[in-house]
UniProtKB/TrEMBL annotation:
This is tRNA (guanine(9)-N(1))-methyltransferase. It catalyses: guanosine(9) in tRNA + S-adenosyl-L-methionine = N(1)-methylguanosine(9) in tRNA + S-adenosyl-L-homocysteine + H(+). PROSITE patterns: SAM_MT_TRM10 (PS51675). It comes from Kipferlia bialata. Residues 272-285, 343-352 have a biased composition (Basic and acidic residues). The keyword Methyltransferase applies. PANTHER family: TRNA (GUANINE-9-) METHYLTRANSFERASE (PTHR13563), TRNA METHYLTRANSFERASE 10 HOMOLOG A (PTHR13563:SF13). InterPro entries: MT_TRM10-typ, MT_TRM10-typ_sf, tRNA_m1G_MeTrfase_euk. One of its GO terms (cellular component) is nucleus. Its EC number is 2.1.1.221. GO terms for biological process: tRNA N1-guanine methylation. Residues 251-358 are annotated as: Disordered. The lineage of its organism: Eukaryota, Metamonada, Carpediemonas-like organisms, Kipferlia. GO terms for molecular function: tRNA (guanosine(9)-N1)-methyltransferase activity; tRNA binding. Keywords: Methyltransferase, S-adenosyl-L-methionine, Transferase.
Amino acid sequence: MVPDPTWQAKRIRIKEKKREERKARNAAARKVLVDELGEEAAVAKIKELAIVHAQWHRDKRQRLLEDKAHFIELSAANASRPVPLPIICMDFQFSPLMTDKETRSLGQQMSQLYGAAWRHKNPLPVSVVGLTPGPMQDVMDRYPGFPWEGVDIRPTSLLETYPRDKVLYLSADADEEIEGLEDDHVYVIGAFVDRNRHKNCTNDWAVKNGVRTVRLPIQKGWMTASSVLTVNQCHAYLKALHDGMRGREAFEAVVPPRKRGLGRKKPKGKRKGGDREKEAAKKAENTPCEGVVPGEGGQTETPAETETETPAETETVTETVQTAGDADGSALPPVDSPLPKRPSCDPERETEAEAEAE
C-alpha cells in the first residue's frame, strides 16, 4: 500500500522539529562546558561523552534485538510446549463499527501494544484474528514492519482459529472476574475503539455464540476520572496478572494516574483563588487601623500636613449632594448633620475623650 502523503509529511515535520530541538540542546550544553572548562578541555570532554553515548546506544540496541528474538522464538514454539502459555488475542471483527478517527486511534494502540509485548521480561504470545482488507488493514499497513514478527495474524474469525472451550472474552459487562491467567487458554480483547457508543457489544456476541466472558479485576471507584481502558492497557493488565500481581497492585501498575483521578488533585502548595481571597480578608482583619504604629502603645502618628477645605469648596459639595438627592427622588440627610462617630483604634484614648466631654 502507498503511504498517505499527508501522514508522511507530518512525520517529516515532527522529525525536523525534534532534530532542531536536539541541536539547540547540544549547543547550550557545549556553551556551558566551554564556560566551565575552556575551549580545549571542553572539546576533549565532548569527545569522551560521545564515545560513551555511542557505546550505550550499541548496548541498548543489542539488548532490544535479543528481546525481540526471544519473543519471536517463544511465539513460534508455544504450540509445541507440553503446556502452552496463555495467548492474548486481538479480535478485529468489530472494526467496521469504528469511525476513521477511531480506526487511526486503534492503530496507535496496537503499535504501542506490540512494542510493549516483545520488550517485556516475561512475554506472552500475541495473535490477531479477523483482520480483513479494509480501512483497518490500510491503517495497520502504514506502521513500519507490519505484519509484525512474532505475532500470529490471521483473517479468519475467532472461533475458526481457536477451540470454543479455550476462549475467554474480556468484557466490562461480564459477571465473572479473573484473578490470574490460566495456561493453554486464549484471552480475547475486542480490538475496537467505540467511545462507549456500542454498549455490551462484545458481551452480547460472546453470550450469543456460547463463549465464556470475563472481566478484569477493577473494583468500583478505582477509575474516577475515566472508565475506559485502551487496548494496549488491557494487554498490559493481563501481563501484570500473569506476572503474579493481584488487586490494587496490578491496577496501579497499568492504569495511568490521570485515569485514576490523581491528575485532577490540587498540587501540594498550590492555592486556588478562593484561598487567596480568604487569606487577604484575614490579613485585613489583623491589620492595625490607619494612623496607629504597631508596637508603640497605641501612639498615633502626627500627620505632616493637614488639608482643609475652603468655604467655596464646601458650598460646591453641599450643592452637589442636594442636587443628587433631588434627582434621585430620595431624601438625603442635611449636610450639617453630625456623622456617626468612628470607633477609635485606641480604647484608652477613647475613654479619656469621653471623660473630658463629661
